[in-house]
Design goal:
18 helices; alpha/beta; Rossmann fold; seven-stranded mixed β-sheet
């Protein structure tokens, strides 16, 4: 299936400029199986798989799906915890020419039913209880009838109507299906994957991703992290979200090994770095915060040279502490599922530059633009709405022309971020435009207030949101998770903000302590749910 926003002329321009090549991830993995057959490709708590074994298993699954009548360009809806099996399935679907859409594990019947309705998948990979308390009733309800799809069970229990995963991995009885893989595998200029946005407001958007864009991003991210075939990459965030996925795609440029943890518990991750000799890790800010609070000296972390932090603003104090105590480097990145990795620090940047509050420069081929409310371009140093255009971006929303036109215009993607570009040409994200708080005409960026609150030594994590206010229209409320065993006095915290020089109108009207934050995909804080958790005043 061809991309929505990319015509032949644009694709040829990407090829001529060297942003895209005609090589695909399937072709790259086949080369690894040929050149490094016995080298480890991936490992999890259950097994370790070589490139040769990965090639065999992905071929079996692809052939069995083809033999089962799943047509080319059909969709697969997938909900599975990150592990070796996810890599196996991602490549198998690419081989079979089936477009995979990977749902976060947090999704339940409502979100899964929506995705099912939009995608009309021919095959579903899930555990039978993936819909939560409602079980898999969402399948039938979304289709209106008993869903005419192949259901592949990942749990091992395989109730009636579900095909066990193990059967799909067996050598196919139809040898002709294996021969079809060569003609079925996706080309560089076709949609080969659908990613989902975080869904922090309303239903998630389904972003179509061409194979060429994925390979372009593989080279860009790999270059910023200096990934090589000798690296052992710890995927410390779900691959259904940006933080895990965007580092896994670097396997399209280097035969590095990928290691999946059994849990995202901080001490377990540190122990895994020590035992598996992880060299590069990818995760999200909240997990970095938890890692930085551990007794890092109790682990041998000398193998770790870099940890990439994506999807949300990182706690710079936690990042500096982690660097100081481990000797590794924290590499910040920012992006969205529409335009992944639109800014990315470089592994070689000095700490003073990497951790100065900016994210980093753009990848090669990416263009930035800061606009005012009327859409006029602003000079460097101005604060405004952030737009960009990149050869590794999504090519639109799946079969949603209206939503695509809303976000993309003349090649520019409106990210929804308020940002500025500093003198060094590095991006600074200041907040989300839809989260700006209007307090009687005074505009407040939650991220600015959050940064000041996070400086308090007793604060583990915080979030500032707009709350309705009878006098001012809106007022900022601060939700705070203290460090374990600590508590916060709102009056003391408010006074600390005044002392910091923060304008009085930006100081939150309420400080609400929470034991833990609600989260959406990629472990982002679910700000929409916070107001519902606030106790009555």
């Amino acid at each position: 299936m061809k991309p929505s926003l990319l015509n032949r002329e644009k694709i040829e321009a990407y090829l001529s400029a060297g942003y895209w090549t005609r090589e695909t991830m399937v072709e790259r993995y086949a080369a690894y199986a040929r050149d490094f057959p016995d080298k480890t490709a991936c490992r999890d708590s259950q097994e370790e798989i070589t490139w040769r074994e990965l090639d065999e298993r992905t071929g079996h699954i692809a052939a069995n799906l083809i033999a089962g009548g799943i047509e080319r360009d059909a969709r697969a809806l997938v909900q599975m915890p990150s592990s070796n099996r996810e890599i196996i399935l991602r490549i198998a679907l690419k081989k079979a020419g089936i477009i995979g859409c990977y749902a976060p594990m947090q999704w339940r019947s409502q979100e899964l039913g929506y995705a099912h309705q939009e995608l009309a998948p021919s095959v579903i990979f899930a555990s039978p209880d993936s819909g939560g308390d409602e079980g898999t009733a969402w399948l039938d309800e979304a289709a209106g009838v008993t869903a005419p799809v192949l259901r592949v069970d990942l749990s091992g229990f395989s109730p009636e109507g579900w095909l066990p995963w193990a059967e799909l991995t067996r050598p196919p009885e139809d040898t002709g299906a294996m021969e079809e893989i060569a003609s079925r595998a996706f080309r560089f200029d076709e949609i080969s994957m659908i990613t989902v946005s975080s869904g922090s407001s309303g239903f998630s958007k389904l972003c179509e991703w061409p194979e060429g864009a994925q390979m372009c991003l593989a080279r860009a991210n790999g270059a910023r992290l200096r990934i090589s075939g000798e690296d052992n990459v710890g995927v410390f965030a779900p691959m259904a979200g940006g933080a895990g996925l965007l580092v896994w795609v670097t396997s399209g440029m280097a035969p590095c090994a990928f290691t999946f943890p059994e849990t995202y518990n901080a001490r377990a991750l540190l122990a895994l770095i020590e035992s598996a000799k992880i060299t590069v890790a990818t995760t999200v800010p909240v997990i970095l915060n938890r890692l930085a609070q551990e007794d890092l000296g109790a682990f041998d972390l000398r193998s770790l040279r870099a940890i990439r932090i994506g999807t949300a603003a990182a706690d710079l104090d936690a990042a500096r502490r982690f660097e100081r105590l481990t000797g590794s480097r924290v590499v910040l990145a920012a992006g969205s599922m529409e335009t992944p990795g639109f800014a990315h620090a470089d592994f070689t940047d000095p700490a003073a530059l990497r951790l100065n509050g900016s994210i980093g420069p753009p990848h090669r081929g990416c263009r930035w633009r800061i606009e005012d409310e009327e859409g006029n371009a602003l000079p460097r140093g101005s604060v405004g709405h952030f737009k960009l255009a990149a050869p590794y971006a999504s090519s639109g929303y799946w079969k949603d022309e209206e939503a695509t036109r809303t976000v993309w215009s003349e090649g520019w993607n409106a990210t929804g971020d308020i940002a500025t570009i500093d003198e060094d040409g590095r991006l600074r994200l200041l907040g989300r435009s839809k989260e700006v708080i209007n307090r009687s005409g005074q505009k407040i960026l939650p991220a600015e207030v959050e940064r000041e609150i996070a400086k308090h030594p007793d604060v583990f994590e915080c979030a500032v949101v707009a709350a309705p206010d009878p006098e001012y229209g809106e007022a900022p409320w601060a939700f705070i998770q203290p460090h374990a065993g600590r508590s916060l006095d709102p009056k003391v915290l408010a006074e600390a903000l005044r002392t910091s020089g923060l304008a009085t109108y930006k100081i939150p009207a309420r400080f609400i302590e929470l034991p833990e934050f609600p989260r959406v995909a990629s472990d982002k804080i679910d700000k929409k749910a916070l107001l519902q958790m606030a106790p009555a005043e």
